[in-house]
Amino acid sequence: MSxxxxxxxxxxxxxxxxxxxxxxxxxxxIALIPTATLLLGSLYCLLPVAxxxxxxxxxxxxxxxxxxxxxxxxxxxxxxxxxxYRDGVYWQWMANSALYAGLGALLSTCVSAISGxxxxxxxxxGRETLFNLLLAGVLMPPVILAVPQYLxxxxxxxxxxxxxxxxxxxxxxxxVYLARIYxxxxxxxxxxxxxxxxxxxxxxxxxxxxxxxxxPGMVTVFLxxxxxxxxxxxxxxxxxSDDEKFPITLGLFxxxxxxxxxxxxxxxxxxxxxxxxxxLVALFLVIQRFWxxxxxxxxxxx
Amino acid sequence: xxxxxxxxxxxxxxxxYAHPSPTTTLERARSAPYLFxxxxxxxxxxxxxxxxxxxxxxxxxxxxxxxxxxxxxxxxEIWAGLENYTDALSDSELLHGTLRxxxxxxxxxxxxxxxxxxxxxxxxxxxxxxxxxxxxxxxxPYAIPGVVAALLWGxxxxxxxxPFYFVLDRLGMPQPDLLDGGPLFxxxxxxxxxxxxxxxxIVIYTSLQAIPAxxxxxxxxxxxxxxxxxxxxxxxxVSPSLVLTFFFSIIATLQVFNEPTTLKPLTNSVSTxxxxxxxxxxxxxxxxxxxxxxxxxxxxxxxxxxxxxGFLRAANRRQKQEAAR
Lengths: 302, 325
Prior knowledge:
The structure holds 2 protein chains of 2 kinds.
Chain A: H1 17-20, H2 24-55, H3 60-65, H4 75-84, H5 89-121, H6 127-139, H7 142-155, H8 162-166, H9 173-186, H10 189-197, H11 202-231, H12 234-239, H13 248-259, H14 264-287
Helix pairs in contact in A: 2-14, 4-14, 5-9, 5-11, 5-13, 6-9, 9-11, 10-11, 13-14
Chain B: H1 3-6, H2 23-59, E1 61-65, E2 75-79, H3 83-89, H4 92-124, H5 131-139, H6 146-157, H7 163-170, H8 181-209, H9 213-221, H10 226-237, H11 239-254, H12 258-263, H13 276-286, H14 290-324
Antiparallel strand pairs in B: 1-2
């Protein structure tokens, strides 16, 4: 595979005993294996993305008649069709997703931060029980929760509303868990004690002293919740019937379902899928530098 | 008084939080954690505990229809005892769904974690080129919603638009139906592997980075090859992360719902009861049998909890044994 011809790794003089002993070819080959493996992995991960980018440029006729990885001529037309589809309901879905994910993640980060802080800093009766109960929420399959959640919200006359998708997603047990780990590592006990000595209230200590220290970790939590809500399909699938309130995942799914009978809709699904991927990828690139990946593995650098 | 000397860890281990402070602040601090946890507890009660309790309650109920089932009072909710449970446990559709998901999990979890570990080790190896770019590329699928991922792969599996079929056709090779029978399992597994590898790779890679460099230097002085270092040092040292990713992967696999549901419009081979959760959904909303669905939901939740706790206990015991050595 010529595309995998990576730059030859120049052994740094004296960096490895192997090169010093006069075995450069073997060493060089070994250094190529990781790079080649990673490139193959990237190829696999980018394949569907590359496909959707190209497929979105094809008109309905070209989609089924030209070679898959050959760009088409219908991109502008596809965008126009998507805009025109049911008076631009697609953009309504995008806006809904932004609302669910943005507001939902913000609220849930606040709840995670204050709960994680309380669980990390205070010693009180029932702390571990409470923490374990919250964590057990991670293990609950979403459908198990969603069915009775639907029935309960139906009793409160809240189904098929924005609230029915927003409210059940505010508490994220995993976010509370991460916030606890982060608060324990990032907020020194001395600082809290100093605040108390100065007569600050517990609330003030949290908002003015601890919270700013927790910001980097909370960015990670926000991103997690944002992705989780943006990608969620099941809850809106169960809760919503009015497609004006659909998030993008559900909107694309219904479009695909209809496409099974009207193949003309396939190009809309594909173009829509491409555009739906952009916001999250952009968010990742922007937020990447604020993002402490260490949190993922539960390890926090001090 | 040196302030660092008083610094204590009060993290997940639950070490004591004991600081000398005036009684008044202690009194105040006593109610603070409860107030701070109030929003979480309220949300937990409303959207976790109450629904679960309601599901359990429903699972013991059924509707009794008297006469033709018309008019008010003809349908009455009555106590069903364990009837819904015996029905669920003897339901062959639920059993088949469970077996399907177990088979699916046996493919997804080892392949996904194997690839994640492989990529993490490669990223961590010396002299690797293009590491930041490839890391981002492999992590990218995490940002793509499961529904969109299934949709993209679904099209890649469709004979009319797929590049695979094009290549097979040119090579004059047989063209299997990727959306039917055995290949369907692989097709669905592939979507999960594609979506999950990058995330797990990052988790493992992060803990690889935490290993101090001196450890490698010592091993190199002893003449260890990179492969030996990977097998004898790196993998054992990241085993806590491996346990964590394994645990979350199993939980996620058992809950598979989005991918088969999304592929359904593209093929007739994915039934509405392909996975246990799809069956719960179909029974509750398609058939309107919320009582039976609730019983199945409770059984699945119970099995998941049992499995998780069993797994966590086993993992804990192993860690203790290793620490004792």
